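Q: Sequence in, structure out?
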Amino acid sequence: MPGEYRAIWSVPGGGTGYSVLHCQSFSLASNADDFAAATRAFFNSCAGLFPDDIQINFDSEVLELTDAGVLTAVHAVTPPAVVNGTATGTFSRAAGARVDWATNQIVGGRRLTGRTYMVPLTAGSFDTEGVLTSAAITTLTTAAGTFITTMAATGSDLAVWSRTHATTAPVETASAPQKGAILRGRRD
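A: Exactly. Output:
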């Protein structure tokens, strides 16, 4: 059964955003604390890319779901410490990066993949052509790789969950495309 955990982004003047992550083989309540700690470590590893007025808080519970998305249990966790962005400089509230999570699962004729948006990032994360710097890409992919390894060591692999196809698959690799990510709202 997959587990679901949320990182909660606070962007001054920009509202609240959520990064929702999943793990596979979630069967023990103790996995909830491991999942929360590993999620915090992932975002903390990227703190140098986030503007210094960004805060990422973490939920106080991990949800246990069936592959079909039915909630079966709620596991309380002590929320990990807040991650504060440490980068100074200008930034656009809508511009950042994306981490792609790849699995080996084929669903509906396509590889099952997931995405986590890391928005906003400071202008220093982009070069003069508007694409992510190699340093920013390295930071993101290294943090993602460590996240995958840490979760595998707990026995609850980081996973991609497809509500549409009612399936979950472990993440095998992660990458951060050079092209930045733009978040848009319904009012854009």
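The helical segments are 29-45, 134-154.
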